[in-house]
Amino acid sequence: MVSDNPSVALIGPGAIGTTIVAALHEVGRTPTVCGRTAHPQLILRVDNEHIVVPGPVLTEPGDIHQPFDLVFVATKTTQLAASAAWLKVLCNENTVVCALQNGVEQKAQITPYVAGAEVLPSVVWFPAQREPDASVWLRAAPRLTLPDTPAAKRVQTVLQGTRCAVDLSPDFISVAWRKLLQNAAAGLMVLSGRRAGMFSRNDITTLAMDYLQECLAVARAEGATLGDAVPQEIVAGFQRAPADLGTSILADRQAGRPLEWDIRNGVVQRYGKKHGIPTPFSDVIVPLLAAGSDGPG
Ligand SMILES: NC(=O)C1=CN([C@@H]2O[C@H](COP(=O)(O)OP(=O)(O)OC[C@H]3O[C@@H](n4cnc5c(N)ncnc54)[C@H](OP(=O)(O)O)[C@@H]3O)[C@@H](O)[C@H]2O)C=CC1
Ligand SMILES: CC(C)(CO)C(=O)C(=O)O
């Protein structure tokens, strides 16, 4: 039985995690924050305002003594196994775990760690950028889309009245694949080492459009209902974006961290193979991203 005032924890107070923690803190619902580094405070910059959430961030799973009603997971997917000790102490079968991560495989990836809790995938639409001092620059209005299920109502209640909007979708698979296509194309920024401004080039537009057609065929085979205009809409979105807008996978590349190449790009190649769909663009892009992430060399 969940109270009217659910207990909330968040694992991974980086770009997305800090945004959600600050949004909750602003309305007096500061969650328990679990991380890897004991940041003394979390700072979110929005326009010219700074929201400061006092710390320190917890770093010892042994400091948690009871399970929570709602747990947000905002680590990178590459950091999931390392977050298992947190999930173990924060979850029981009554917990809802909301994945604030990219990809279309969140439920399958997180479920093994959560002691019978229900895992709720989400689509995180907003860009947030972590600065060298670990403060976070929120670069658009925060918005999440969740599948329209009873568990999602818990997330909606917790975020109600905060600056983070929550939409519920009856066709979540299509929304999730629409975002996956955006992330797949954003991966091209890693290969050029450039930000969104590169999409003003005709050659990059052609490459992105061809790659997105391949991704669209795989998305449809997986059951997503996406129109023919989606590749064009995605490229146009990058062309409208500020030229210096990056993507989280580019930030990881530039910092020499492991990349979420498999859940953002590899997934198209893997599912293409499953459905017998040729993926010539993925067959070039994926090994380059994988090698850039994992080496050797
Ligand atoms: N940034 C963006 O604009 C967007 C990101 N996403 C997705 O959201 C997810 C999170 O990305 P993002 O916020 O950018 O990631 P960040 O790298 O900014 O943040 C990850 C956070 O997880 C923490 N962490 C790492 N390992 C552990 C661990 N073992 N236990 C607890 N905490 C840990 C990190 O700790 P430390 O503080 O020590 O670094 C950091 O605070 C990704 O799947 C990404 O693809 C989706 C949409 C937009
Ligand atoms: C910024 C955005 C929304 C698009 O690529 C993103 O998902 C990311 O940076 O990981």
From TrEMBL:
GO cellular component: cytoplasm
Domain Ketopantoate reductase N-terminal residue range list: 8-148
Signal peptide boundaries: none
Pathway terms, separated by semicolons: Cofactor biosynthesis; (R)-pantothenate biosynthesis; (R)-pantoate from 3-methyl-2-oxobutanoate: step 2/2
Keyword terms of this UniProt record: Oxidoreductase, Pantothenate biosynthesis
Keyword Oxidoreductase: yes
UniProt cross-references to InterPro entries, sorted A to Z: 6-PGluconate_DH-like_C_sf, 6PGD_dom2, KPA_reductase, KPR-Related, KPR_N, NAD(P)-bd_dom_sf
One BP term from GO: pantothenate biosynthetic process
Residues of the Ketopantoate reductase C-terminal domain: 172-290
Catalytic activity: (R)-pantoate + NADP(+) = 2-dehydropantoate + NADPH + H(+)
Gene3D superfamilies with a match to the protein in the record: N-(1-d-carboxylethyl)-l-norvaline Dehydrogenase, domain 2, NAD(P)-binding Rossmann-like Domain
MF terms in GO: 2-dehydropantoate 2-reductase activity
EC assignment: 1.1.1.169
The keyword Oxidoreductase is assigned to this record: yes
TM stretches of this protein: none
Enzyme class: oxidoreductase
Protein name in UniProt: 2-dehydropantoate 2-reductase
Organism: Kosakonia oryzendophytica
